[in-house]
Protein backbone atom coordinates (compact mmCIF):
# COMPACT_ATOMS: atom_id res chain seq x y z
CA UNK A 1 0.00 0.00 0.00
CA UNK A 2 1.36 3.44 -0.95
CA UNK A 3 0.31 7.05 -0.67
CA UNK A 4 -0.61 9.16 -3.67
CA UNK A 5 1.07 12.50 -3.04
CA UNK A 6 0.28 15.73 -4.83
CA UNK A 7 1.95 18.99 -3.79
CA UNK A 8 0.57 22.10 -5.47
CA UNK A 9 1.75 25.71 -5.38
CA UNK A 10 -0.25 28.55 -6.95
CA UNK A 11 1.88 28.48 -10.10
CA UNK A 12 2.74 24.79 -10.54
CA UNK A 13 2.45 21.19 -9.42
CA UNK A 14 5.59 20.61 -7.35
CA UNK A 15 5.18 16.89 -6.72
CA UNK A 16 2.81 14.29 -8.15
CA UNK A 17 3.77 10.67 -7.49
CA UNK A 18 3.50 7.75 -5.12
CA UNK A 19 5.23 7.86 -1.74
CA UNK A 20 5.78 5.39 1.08
CA UNK A 21 6.10 7.96 3.85
CA UNK A 22 5.87 11.73 4.29
CA UNK A 23 7.18 13.88 7.15
CA UNK A 24 6.09 17.54 7.23
CA UNK A 25 6.20 20.51 9.58
CA UNK A 26 2.85 21.59 11.03
CA UNK A 27 2.04 24.54 13.25
CA UNK A 28 2.23 22.24 16.29
CA UNK A 29 5.26 20.11 15.34
CA UNK A 30 6.08 17.45 12.79
CA UNK A 31 3.66 14.92 11.37
CA UNK A 32 4.52 11.56 9.87
CA UNK A 33 2.15 10.15 7.27
CA UNK A 34 2.08 6.46 6.38
CA UNK A 35 -0.39 4.46 4.27
CA UNK A 36 -3.84 4.09 5.87
CA UNK A 37 -3.38 7.29 7.91
CA UNK A 38 -6.55 8.59 9.55
CA UNK A 39 -8.33 11.35 7.60
CA UNK A 40 -6.89 14.72 8.54
CA UNK A 41 -6.81 18.36 7.50
CA UNK A 42 -3.91 20.31 9.01
CA UNK A 43 -2.07 23.60 8.59
CA UNK A 44 1.57 23.36 7.54
CA UNK A 45 4.34 25.62 8.78
CA UNK A 46 7.41 26.74 6.87
CA UNK A 47 9.93 23.95 6.96
CA UNK A 48 11.28 20.86 5.29
CA UNK A 49 9.04 18.08 4.06
CA UNK A 50 10.69 14.70 3.57
CA UNK A 51 9.26 12.15 1.18
CA UNK A 52 10.26 8.48 1.01
CA UNK A 53 9.74 7.01 -2.44
CA UNK A 54 11.51 4.42 -4.57
CA UNK A 55 13.59 3.35 -1.56
CA UNK A 56 15.10 6.80 -0.99
CA UNK A 57 14.29 10.06 0.79
CA UNK A 58 13.79 13.39 -0.99
CA UNK A 59 13.43 16.78 0.66
CA UNK A 60 11.40 19.83 -0.21
CA UNK A 61 11.29 23.31 1.34
CA UNK A 62 7.63 24.21 1.95
CA UNK A 63 6.53 27.74 2.73
CA UNK A 64 3.36 27.03 4.67
CA UNK A 65 -0.01 25.80 3.52
CA UNK A 66 -2.45 22.96 4.21
CA UNK A 67 -2.41 19.17 3.95
CA UNK A 68 -5.44 16.97 3.43
CA UNK A 69 -5.14 13.23 4.00
CA UNK A 70 -7.90 10.80 3.04
CA UNK A 71 -7.94 7.25 1.65
CA UNK A 72 -4.16 7.20 1.03
CA UNK A 73 -4.46 10.41 -1.00
CA UNK A 74 -2.31 13.25 0.37
CA UNK A 75 -2.95 16.66 -1.14
CA UNK A 76 -0.69 19.48 0.01
CA UNK A 77 -1.45 23.07 -0.98
CA UNK A 78 1.51 25.35 -0.34
CA UNK A 79 2.20 29.05 -0.76
CA UNK A 80 5.55 28.14 -2.32
CA UNK A 81 7.78 25.05 -2.44
CA UNK A 82 11.10 23.96 -3.89
CA UNK A 83 12.50 20.47 -4.21
CA UNK A 84 15.94 20.17 -2.62
CA UNK A 85 17.40 19.42 -6.05
CA UNK A 86 16.15 22.83 -7.28
CA UNK A 87 17.97 24.77 -4.53
CA UNK A 88 21.53 26.03 -4.94
CA UNK A 89 23.21 25.17 -1.59
CA UNK A 90 25.66 28.10 -1.75
CA UNK A 91 22.89 30.60 -2.47
CA UNK A 92 20.75 29.08 0.30
CA UNK A 93 23.64 29.40 2.77
CA UNK A 94 24.23 33.06 1.82
CA UNK A 95 20.51 33.86 2.10
CA UNK A 96 20.38 32.15 5.51
CA UNK A 97 23.35 34.14 6.81
CA UNK A 98 21.88 37.42 5.54
CA UNK A 99 18.46 36.60 7.02
CA UNK A 100 20.06 35.67 10.33
CA UNK A 101 21.91 39.01 10.47
CA UNK A 102 18.79 40.97 9.44
CA UNK A 103 16.71 39.18 12.08
CA UNK A 104 19.23 40.03 14.81
CA UNK A 105 19.23 43.75 14.02
CA UNK A 106 15.54 44.24 13.11
CA UNK A 107 13.76 47.05 14.97
CA UNK A 108 10.06 47.73 15.20
CA UNK A 109 7.24 45.19 15.34
CA UNK A 110 6.55 45.01 11.60
CA UNK A 111 10.23 44.75 10.66
CA UNK A 112 10.85 42.03 13.28
CA UNK A 113 7.95 39.95 11.90
CA UNK A 114 9.17 40.38 8.31
CA UNK A 115 12.75 39.49 9.29
CA UNK A 116 11.60 36.39 11.18
CA UNK A 117 9.55 35.18 8.19
CA UNK A 118 12.52 35.73 5.88
CA UNK A 119 14.72 33.83 8.35
CA UNK A 120 12.29 30.87 8.55
CA UNK A 121 12.10 30.71 4.74
CA UNK A 122 15.89 30.83 4.38
CA UNK A 123 16.32 28.19 7.10
CA UNK A 124 13.85 25.84 5.38
CA UNK A 125 15.65 26.23 2.04
CA UNK A 126 19.07 25.63 3.64
CA UNK A 127 17.89 22.54 5.54
CA UNK A 128 16.27 21.13 2.40
CA UNK A 129 19.40 21.72 0.32
CA UNK A 130 21.51 20.00 3.00
CA UNK A 131 19.17 17.00 2.93
CA UNK A 132 19.66 16.52 -0.82
UniProtKB/TrEMBL annotation:
GO terms for molecular function: ATP binding; proton-transporting ATP synthase activity, rotational mechanism. Residues 3-81 form the ATP synthase F1 complex delta/epsilon subunit N-terminal domain. The keyword Cell membrane does not apply. The keyword Disulfide bond does not apply. It comes from the Eukaryota. It is a peripheral membrane protein. Its main location: membrane. One of its GO terms (cellular component) is chloroplast thylakoid membrane. Produces ATP from ADP in the presence of a proton gradient across the membrane. NCBIfam families: ATP_synt_epsi. F-type ATPases have 2 components, CF(1) - the catalytic core - and CF(0) - the membrane proton channel. CF(1) has five subunits: alpha(3), beta(3), gamma(1), delta(1), epsilon(1). CF(0) has three main subunits: a, b and c. Belongs to the ATPase epsilon chain family. This is ATP synthase epsilon chain, chloroplastic.
